[in-house]
Amino acid sequence: MPSPENIAKNTTYLTVALVVQKILSFFFFLFIAKTLGNGGTGEYVAAFSLSSIFGVFADFGLGPVLIRELAHDESKSVIYLGNIIAIKLWLSVIAFGALVGTVYAVRLLGGGHPPLALIIVAGAVMIVDSFALTGTSVFRGRQNLWFESIVVILNKVLILGLGLVALYLWPSALNVALTILAGSIVSFFALTYFLNRELHLSWRPRLNKIVILELKKLALPFALANIFAAVYAYSDSVLLSFLKGSQAVGIYSVAAKTMNAFQFIPMAFMAAVFPAMSYYHRHAPERLRDIFEQSFRYLLLISAPLAIGLFVLADQFVAQLGADYWPAALAVRILVPSLVFVFLSFPLGALLNAANRQHWQTAVIGLSMIINIGLNIWLIPALSYIGASWSWFITNAAVLLIGLWLARLVVAYRIWPLVKSLGRVLVSVAVMGWATLAMTAFMPLLLVVLLSGIIYTAGLFALRELSLADVQYFWGLFHRREAELITVSSSE
Questions:
Q1: Does the keyword Zinc-finger apply (predicted)?
Q2: CA gap 312, 34 in Å, rounded
């Protein structure tokens, strides 16, 4: 079993790898959007959104089960891995057939859809990634994240390199998809090599009826949560494609990807804080409130300027992508305020999970899926991508409000300090927004962004919402042990 120091180091490696992956993915997408235009980009996004939904059925929650069970007993690696491979072989065939069949049915009904060849390639990526996920789950279960970090970076660098060549020489959504398939295949073989070299494991399928029934039972709650999350995340692009066509998806995706690009920030933040939340829930409940309030406040400090900055600079941002995307500016302005809702939902979800209220979190995700689909079906036919943008905004606001209510049932967090923080942040961000708008008339975009950040930070210090203790907290966040994560902010 790895030492706590090695586990912390490996977790840092993986967090850095995932952050790099998210950043590279976003800039790669912007290059795709600029090169292919809204039509080709819409085909690409719709195909992979649809395959991502069906990919959840191919995995069926088996990844988290494998992680949890191997963390308890590593000796079960061979039997669990072999039976999961056997299950995934037929699940992948079913998911791939359902994916292609769905697109073919939509075609017969006269709805919009990505080209069938693109869907087939996206489906192949779905299958390869599903098996690769099983490999990374084995390493996670053994608390060794180093090899997953290598594969994550290898995958993204390879896709980026091949993708840029494809976009330069043979620009099409299909060729971009083929580069992603190539990256996935290489990642799969890299994982195969690491599994064999480090753990002496292979992809040999095994059939044990008792084990398979046990795995299905254990996986069902995870599968349900993953299905809710995938449909919630991707149904807007899929419905836009079916109801309004690829161009609407392309315009909407620029706004949606811009907002989602920043989610690595709360993901990395909560990855560092979650172990402390779990520890305090069991051993020091009175401190759980402190770390929750601090997490909520810090993510508010980060998300507010991002949202206002993107809101003010929406026209300048979409102008970099070409005339095809001018309509996306309005979608950006509708979507980016919900960035605050998304950021603040992360500590709420982490709190529920740390307090063993996972079923509450699953219910929240399921309810959000229902709200989002209902709003999309109602608004997209009349408002197209603007309707999808409003659906996302309203859904995330509802998720935040529900999460705040449920979190209050777990820990009696103090409302007034959070309200005071919100007031100071609103004042600082309003000044920053006004200054940003004024500076755009005569300054380069990068300089505007830099000065806006300085103005916002200065405002927080002036209002005593930010202190040196907060800066020290951020600096040491990823290097401290669980019991050292809380610092008492001097700003309150």
A1: no
A2: 21
